[in-house]
């Protein structure tokens, strides 16, 4: 069974997140792609983050529109900072050895992976699917891959590498949608439309709950 994982702050979740998850799921024949909101993002400890229950609920209502996607409340149940290595270990223990995990992230996040907790071990628990992001399309990741794990080797297939633990690193492209959660928060705070940036149901939730009205970057 092949399962995808897309984590993020999702503050708020937007169409770029959802389209990436949908396209990767279809391209790799995944049974399900779990979108996992980070309860306490380690790289955003100094920034204000919308309460977890709002971000989880927005993720739930957004993924309701696709049978392939599903929100998973995993990190909200753990105390402390939300580390990907702990999430992968928990999923492997829960789903069992017959499950292949595919960890989805963008090149912008991947090139920072050496700052993650126990980053070297992440490749022992899941295949990695690295999505080319706007502004990073021409970056060659091969030298970087070799620098972070000496056992990563190129395969005969283009843009696919394999680790010593027999996990693949797959470089993929998806529909480039230059949408950012920061921009959405700023527009919402200014009273501007966020239509066509987030699912309609998420936009309604943001309005109903009065989220982002006091966003610091509004001015």
From TrEMBL:
E.C. no: 2.7.7.18
Cytidyltransferase-like domain: from which residue to which, for each copy? 5-186
Biological process GO terms, please?
Answer: NAD+ biosynthetic process
InterPro entries, A to Z: Cyt_trans-like (IPR004821), NadD/NMNAT (IPR005248), Rossmann-like_a/b/a_fold (IPR014729)
Q: In which pathway does it act?
A: Cofactor biosynthesis; NAD(+) biosynthesis; deamido-NAD(+) from nicotinate D-ribonucleotide: step 1/1
**Pfam families linked:** CTP_transf_like
Per its record, the protein catalyses: nicotinate beta-D-ribonucleotide + ATP + H(+) = deamido-NAD(+) + diphosphate
Task: Supply the CDD domains for this chain.
Answer: NMNAT (cd02165)
Q: Which UniProt keywords apply?
A: ATP-binding, NAD, Nucleotide-binding, Nucleotidyltransferase, Pyridine nucleotide biosynthesis, Transferase
For whether the record's keyword set contains Nucleotide-binding, the answer is yes
Question: What GO molecular functions are on record for this protein?
Answer: ATP binding; nicotinate-nucleotide adenylyltransferase activity
The UniProt function text for this chain reads: Catalyzes the reversible adenylation of nicotinate mononucleotide (NaMN) to nicotinic acid adenine dinucleotide (NaAD).
Family named by the database record:
Belongs to the NadD family.
The record, for PANTHER family, names: NICOTINATE-NUCLEOTIDE ADENYLYLTRANSFERASE-RELATED, PHOSPHOPANTETHEINE ADENYLYLTRANSFERASE
Which protein is depicted? Answer: Probable nicotinate-nucleotide adenylyltransferase
């Amino acid at each position: 069974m092949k399962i995808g994982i897309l984590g993020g702050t999702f503050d708020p979740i937007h169409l770029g997140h959802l389209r990436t998850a949908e396209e990767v799921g279809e391209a790799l024949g995944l049974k399900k792609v779990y979108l996992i909101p980070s309860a306490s993002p380690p790289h955003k400890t100094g920034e204000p983050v919308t309460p977890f229950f709002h971000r989880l609920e927005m993720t739930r209502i957004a993924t309701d529109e696709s049978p392939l996607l599903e929100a998973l409340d995993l990190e909200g149940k753990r105390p402390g900072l939300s580390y990907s290595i702990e999430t992968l270990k928990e999923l492997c223990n829960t789903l069992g050895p017959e499950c292949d995990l595919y960890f989805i992230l963008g090149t912008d996040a991947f090139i920072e992976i050496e700052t993650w907790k126990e980053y070297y071990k992440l490749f022992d628990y899941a295949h990695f699917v690295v999505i080319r992001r706007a502004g990073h399309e021409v970056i060659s990741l091969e030298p970087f891959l070799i620098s972070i794990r000496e056992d990563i080797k190129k395969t005969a297939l283009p843009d696919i590498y394999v680790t010593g633990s027999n996990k693949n690193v797959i470089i993929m492209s998806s529909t480039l949608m230059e949408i950012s959660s920061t921009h959405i928060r700023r527009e919402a705070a200014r009273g501007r439309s966020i239509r066509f940036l987030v699912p309609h149901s998420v936009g309604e939730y943001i309005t109903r709950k009065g989220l982002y009205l006091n966003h610091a970057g509004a001015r």
